[in-house]
Specification:
The chain is mainly β and 311 residues long. It has strands spanning 16-18, 21-25, 28-31, 40-42, 50-55, 60-64, 70-75, 83-85, 91-95, 98-102, 109-114, 120-127, 131-137, 141-145, 151-156, 170-172, 178-182, 187-191, 197-201, 213-216, 222-225, 232-235, 241-245, 259-264, 270-274, 281-284, 290-295, 304-309. The protein has a single domain (16-309), classed as TolB, C-terminal domain (Neuraminidase).
């Protein structure tokens, strides 16, 4: 069972005010005056979820129950954007300087990979064979690492962007290929095990655009989250856009700031994380009706969301 550890929280409103803007950390700012947005779980049809939420400003990962209650609170380290509950019940999460596995009962670190100085890590993924996929900015490496910290497989990525803007999420597909989000280059590329580009998913140009992640769907399509481009795209197998979600599709009061993660549920709906936006996470139908949402400012801005149970 996960436990709620008595660690002090940092409210998103407990920030510095400089030149009329609230500094929330890592170069992100919000206006000092914002309209009130409802907190907690809202679903007119009674949809509930158990969630894993990554809060990079807090440096924590939260497990959230169906009513919005905190089931677990784990300190993983600042930044980072990806978290998983492993089959053994432990938590695997990235932070800016590495990847940690944490015992959810004791809060103790049970495994850790530490990156070299000047390297940033935003992404991790547990793989079969007890390996972990890691994508590094700065060193420009995508690699699978064994639990004894030996490298099982590695390719060198290419980017001319500064370290922080190079890559975001990366995932290995069931077909054995790799989807890598090239952050400020604003493309997701699918690579084979040699690093050869098999497919490129390119969203339309957007002011302050970028990409945060590419997520392979069971039907072979790919969801791409557009980061500050504030849109989400579904590409078919030929890399053609067949579905788009943007600000104009959402209810009044909703505000997309940075689209982080996308998870397609079995019912065809999509759950999205909305970093520094309102609501923090929400579920939307294929015809773009919001059927569930969750916000809690005390958790800090949410970069990634994973639905643990469709209950």
């Amino acid at each position: 069972m996960a436990h709620h550890f008595p660690i002090a929280r940092l409210s998103i409103v407990a920030v510095l005010f400089i030149a009329g803007a609230s500094v929330v950390g890592f170069g992100q700012t919000l206006p000092t005056s914002q309209p009130a947005f409802p907190s907690g779980v809202i679903s007119p049809t009674g949809i509930t979820h158990t969630l894993l939420l990554h809060s990079p400003v807090q440096g924590k990962v939260y497990e959230i129950g169906p009513a919005g209650e905190i089931l677990g609170e784990y300190t993983v380290g600042a930044k980072g954007e990806n978290s998983w509950i492993l089959p053994n019940g432990r938590l695997l999460a990235s932070y800016t300087g590495g990847v940690r596995e944490i015992d959810t009962d004791s809060g103790k670190i049970t495994w850790e990979y530490k990156a070299a100085s000047g390297v940033e890590i935003h992404s991790c993924q547990p793989l079969p064979g007890d390996r972990v996929l890691i994508c590094e900015c700065g060193s420009k490496r995508l690699f699978e690492i064994n639990r004894d910290l030996t490298i099982a497989w590695e390719i060198q990525l290419q980017s001319t962007q500064p370290t922080h803007k190079q890559f975001r999420l990366a995932e290995k597909t069931d077909a054995g290929t790799y989807l890598v989000a090239y952050g400020s280059d604003a493309v997701v590329r699918e690579l084979d095990s040699t690093g050869k580009v098999l497919q490129t998913f390119t969203p339309p140009p957007r002011k302050n655009g970028g990409v945060n992640g590419g997520f392979r769907l069971p039907n072979g399509n790919t969801l791409v989250t557009g980061g500050y481009g504030a849109e989400v795209y579904e590409f078919d197998k030929d890399a053609h856009i067949i579905w788009t979600l943007g600000q104009s599709d959402l209810p009044a009061g909703f505000k997309i700031h940075y689209m982080g993660t996308a998870q397609r549920l079995a019912n065809g709906d999509t759950v999205l994380s909305n970093f520094l936006g309102e609501p923090a996470v929400f579920e939307i139908t294929p015809d773009k009706h919001v059927v569930w949402q969750f916000s809690d400012d005390t958790l800090g801005p949410i970069s990634a969301c994973r639905v643990l149970g469709e209950n």
